[in-house]
Design brief:
Helix content is 0%, strand content 71%. By secondary structure, the chain is mainly beta. The chain starts with a strand and ends in a 5-residue tail after the last strand.
């Protein structure tokens, strides 16, 4: 499970943060975003376990659906899908780089 919040300014740069969770604990993360201006939030799920360290992702949200394709330097490729909403005309599209910490019980 991944609960994400992303804010991107009118200059197309911003911040992403949130947390992932599985049976091992909670994995908070924070990083930078670049993409469509506005705020978006999502709740997604994956068959991959969270990977600590540096991760990169391409996120998209439209019509209440949200997805991400990503790459972790410690775990390789992953993908997520779920629900979300974006404030830029109902959609959001961003590229992110973020650091994952944890797990914390």
């Amino acid at each position: 499970m991944d609960k994400n919040y992303t804010y991107t300014s009118q200059y197309f740069l911003g911040i992403t943060f949130g947390f992932m969770a599985n049976d091992s604990g909670i994995y908070p993360y924070i990083g930078l975003s670049a993409g469509s201006p506005g705020f978006s939030t999502s709740l997604t799920f994956s068959d991959s376990d969270p990977c600590t360290g540096l991760n990169f992702g391409l996120q998209g949200t439209k019509w209440g659906l949200s997805g991400q394709y990503g790459y972790s330097l410690t775990g390789g490729k992953y993908r997520e899908g779920g629900s979300g909403i974006g404030s830029s005309f109902g959609f959001a599209s961003t590229g992110t780089g973020f650091i994952v910490f944890g797990p914390f019980k």
